[in-house]
Design goal:
homodimer, alpha+beta, Uridine Diphospho-n-acetylenolpyruvylglucosamine Reductase, domain 2, Uridine Diphospho-n-acetylenolpyruvylglucosamine Reductase, domain 3, Alpha-Beta Plaits, 4 domains, eight-stranded antiparallel β-sheet, 18 helices, globular
Amino acid sequence: MWLGWSTGRRLLAFRRRLQLCRNVSLPNSARGAVEDGVLSKFRSICGEDGISLGEAVREQHGKDESVHRCCPPDVVVFPRCVEEVSALARVCHKHNLPIIPFGTGTGLEGGVGAVQGGVCFSLRNMDQILDLHPEDFDVTVEPGVTRKSLNAYLRDTGLWFPVDPGADASLCGMAATSASGTNAVRYGTMRENVMNLEVVLADGTIIHTAGKGRRPRKTSAGYNLTNLFVGSEGTLGIITKATLRLYGIPEAMVSAVCSFPSVQTAVDSTVQILQAGVPIARIEFLDDVMIDACNRFSSLSYAVTPTLFLEFHGSERSLEEQVNTAEEITQSNGGSDFQWARDAETRSRLWKARHDAWYAAQALRPGCKAYSTDVCVPLSRLPQIIMETKEDLIESRLTGPIAGHVGDGNFHCLMVVDPSDPDELHRVHLFTERLARRALAMDGTCTGEHGVGLGKRALLREELGPQAIQVMQGLKDALDPKQLLNPEKILQHKEQ
Amino acid sequence: MWLGWSTGRRLLAFRRRLQLCRNVSLPNSARGAVEDGVLSKFRSICGEDGISLGEAVREQHGKDESVHRCCPPDVVVFPRCVEEVSALARVCHKHNLPIIPFGTGTGLEGGVGAVQGGVCFSLRNMDQILDLHPEDFDVTVEPGVTRKSLNAYLRDTGLWFPVDPGADASLCGMAATSASGTNAVRYGTMRENVMNLEVVLADGTIIHTAGKGRRPRKTSAGYNLTNLFVGSEGTLGIITKATLRLYGIPEAMVSAVCSFPSVQTAVDSTVQILQAGVPIARIEFLDDVMIDACNRFSSLSYAVTPTLFLEFHGSERSLEEQVNTAEEITQSNGGSDFQWARDAETRSRLWKARHDAWYAAQALRPGCKAYSTDVCVPLSRLPQIIMETKEDLIESRLTGPIAGHVGDGNFHCLMVVDPSDPDELHRVHLFTERLARRALAMDGTCTGEHGVGLGKRALLREELGPQAIQVMQGLKDALDPKQLLNPEKILQHKEQ
């Protein structure tokens, strides 16, 4: 049974987390460095331009947007097609070299760090949008395609892909992380919106999780391999194609902002709007600190109180009804009148402000680094956990505006940390662990959408228990017996 | 590479499929019979009443509602709690006895047959509804709880569980089969509606796929174990609890029937209704043969032409808009005026007629047996595959009314077969294989919701390719190295 860490070990672990990098703290005895002969093979597969040993390029591929320290790979390769990915993987497999898939590096839990060195597979050169079937609401994309570029491509078709984690992440990276974001309350997460994946396994084998080219809207044909790879964070295979479910662009959309006297009334409104069956597209909570930061950063002037950003999608008529029901509920909870964003430009400005929350938080303390926590609890537990978390922030003397996809029970503290202050770092670490454990104590999860990466491996074990972790390790061993794929992520192999 | 079967082998395989049973065709050398000492252990775990060796009970647990021949287990056990399931599994594991989980026996692909003998775990005595959280829209059920009993229990809460495969199946059995049915077009399948599972593994270990008691609406915490067990058909573990997502009962519901001049116009209407963004709850297609059978069986008088049964859920106002849009579309395609079912009783009669399609089909040829095919294709391919299938039925001189969840691209031919006519059986077999391959050639799947069981193992291989099958086998080996859990289902172990 997992007994928890002592405080000393916790501090050590957090320091290690920030430092976790082959060059600093981990022996590399089991892995060979990348030899010249191997580099020649890489060049013969993806050309002179398809491989980089330059320090800047390696540094750039050794980190994401989290506070996890940069762990550069030994070499970065840039395959142009699945056959090249497969050939490169075969070489790595033969030479026992770690393989780290890289999309856009917008992850938040250290998922791309080369903690044992090895070969980073940057998939940016595979950026084709393939096989759009507008009449079937599906499309297939290569791993270099980002969500914004897909939606730009779709603009004239009347279709869109709604999963929106904020960052312009690659869609296959979003599949790997089981990403979601602001629209998930209505349209689901990547789990519900990936229909098929092409995956290169550790030994170079190419599979299609639902069969090559298949795209039925539902299936019960064998084990759900698609959803085994969605959320596997590059530890089970390299995703080289994703077939995605598309949606018709709604006839009408309208956004609104509503201020509340308290966290409780804002969250109560959320729960009641969902209970009333309003098919709300987005319902985002920002606490007073967050809205203040957004006001400053995006030159807005919303009341500095707990706030909901809402968005409604539908026909003109159904919109009216949705909005009326929602407004009735918010007003009965003491919410302000809705401030409207009806035209595309105003709506876009509003959501840009929400997506810029990260930068707005950072701007509260120039020179500091933002670190986003991520927990998710059942809806009814939201007011309590947010209130307790705000008290904890004050007691811990920390800056952490809160923003969240409250329709899913998912929220983030955007911690703004001085990386040169070890005491503050320690307090942040203790705070984030308390937050995660608070979520666990309320039947929730330590991560609703950011994934486990390096940062949440110990918490994952607490969340699932040793038996479920052992099952996960068994799946990992079955698919990647040499433990080459994105080592040390999700599971701490053989260290438990 | 899979090269397909010759006709001779096909016939052999189909005969084998109908006969597949330890007593008839498979050696049992690897498995010991259930010895007295083992039976004593079973009795000490679940009491004298918790075990049955009676022929009638064993027969009853050796078959589902398909044409697969009855394969009775050696013994049936009736555990009362997860601890008993775990203890029984440990005994089976020690003595290398096959374990076959049994819910209600309403499956359609031979999933419960004890093809290698062994121990059937009937879960009917575990029938408690636990941990209802109305404010969070979730509930946890034991494996003996059926969907109808859950919805009866929920009646006063304003909530319901919408996944509806027709039969009053157990909810954990529905999870095991990845079931769906008429409401999936709006509410999703079991894949989207199971939040957590308690599972007993082959060696008796108890796991919770998302952590014990956890019920966040979304998570990205590690591999998606929940959706690995959903659809695993008892081959990876015994599901002993399921936490399910609930929905608010809509303010208003209305059903309608609409007749069409052709299959094409009925299916075109379906596609256009979905494209228009109507959040339709049910849209069911019945071909002329099917509606004729339903008319006779349920004393109805609908026009004997391709027909849609539709259902709309929402507020009174949104319903009006949904209905108007849908009716405009159906009329532009030459559909009849809607025939309404507004009150609960009329709606219930209408959907009972749809759910009784199976018996209506059987009644077309008294003394014959119904056999339901199950394919799913992208929406745009539906008219072509249904037309080709109807022609094939005529050419093959077979009775096979067609009914389907066309909003998902999923449909069934309800074959009515004389089991004593080997020539007809052979023609049915060739027809169903052609139908499945037609679906595969149109980017579809050989099973949208019935699962693989015994019946579709060869087709599954064609659908996914040998590499993906090998990955599935690797997962099976990792979780059930002794191959004790529901042997021979989904994968044909070591026989490929």
